[in-house]
Amino acid sequence: MTKEPIILGIESSCDDTSAAILHGQKILSNIVANQQVHSLYGGVVPELASRAHQQNIIPVVDAAIKKANINKEDISAIAFTKGPGLLGSLLVGSSFAKSFAMGMNIPLIAVNHMQGHILSHFIDEGEPIPKFPFLCLTVSGGHTQIVRVESASNMQVIGTTIDDAAGEAFDKSAKILGLPYPGGPHIDKHAKKGNIHTFAFGKSKIKELNFSFSGLKTSILYKIQNNLQKNPRFIEENLENLCASIQHSIVSILLNKLEKAIKLTGIKQLAIAGGVSANSYLRSELGKLAIDKGHQLYIPKFEYCTDNAAMIAITGYFKYLDNNFIDQSETPSARLSF
């Protein structure tokens, strides 16, 4: 082993329990345990999520260490998600991390979940990485932001949602259509065979770089309800076109604001992060934008789009280099600010 630190990352902000080992910026393992129980309820149930984390955390960490082919004594520091997220879920990850750090007498590192998504681009897998400064569109079930990234430790949110997130708009629309949870991937799948121009929905007009998806959600709901009164088979007969039109509406809002951010900042290095960055239409449209405007675009691998511990470990790596450690008194925060 070289002198590069070995970081154990722990992610437990929502319903995925994950542990990863990074040696420097190279990934050695990234284990994720999903929780299928929430599909029965059409959304994540916080109490069930925290119980599942308690069951999964030790086996997941053990699997990550074994797959990395290291001993726990080789670990230089442990990084965990401090927030934002579900408090009960965060408490499981932070409690384990504190205990592990104390038992092994190694440094403890707190990570902002959203910064982790952004820095997942810096995991070394032989692919090009963004150059500072760059703009990152972070889109997930709970967040929609445009972030100006000056360095690994210097980030500024220059646009954010004032109400609902893009991922929530996908999931709520899918629920209206009778699609399973999580709804985003199902809308993406059906949209591939649909026409994006079949249905038009109302969009909120928000100044500057902020987003709003509540008006769009309401417009989608009313249009579907009104058509169902006329034709009870409306959704069944128009599912693919509905999905394509809904997806196009959400993505067009995202790209419109990103284009404004590019003009305002003059920054042409672009990246996306978060669960919704796995959406194939968003990736395709961003690719077209980058080609048309001559911008450089960085898109993470699918496994780094959804919640995972590798992104926590890489953020922990940069914090380790800065000696940015915390003590045992640190507590998780469900609404941790950027």
Describe the structure in brief.
The protein is an alpha/beta fold and 338 residues long. The chain is built from nine helices and ten strands.
Plain-language structure description:
The chain has about 350 residues and is an alpha/beta fold. It has two domains: about 5-125 and about 305-320, Nucleotidyltransferase, domain 5, CATH 3.30.420; about 135-300, 2-Layer Sandwich (Nucleotidyltransferase, domain 5). The protein is about 40% helix and about 20% strand. The chain has nine helices and ten strands. It has helices at about 45-70, 85-105, 115-120, 165-175, 185-190, 215-230, 235-265, 280-295, 310-320, and strands at about 5-10, 15-25, 25-35, 75-85, 110, 135-140, 145-150, 155-160, 270-275, 295-300. Strands 3-2-1-4-5 form a five-stranded mixed sheet, with helices on both faces. A hairpin with a 2-residue loop joins β2 (about 15-25) and β3. α4 (about 165-175) runs parallel beside α6 (about 215-230), α4 (about 165-175) runs antiparallel to α7 (about 235-265) and α7 runs parallel beside α8 (about 280-295).
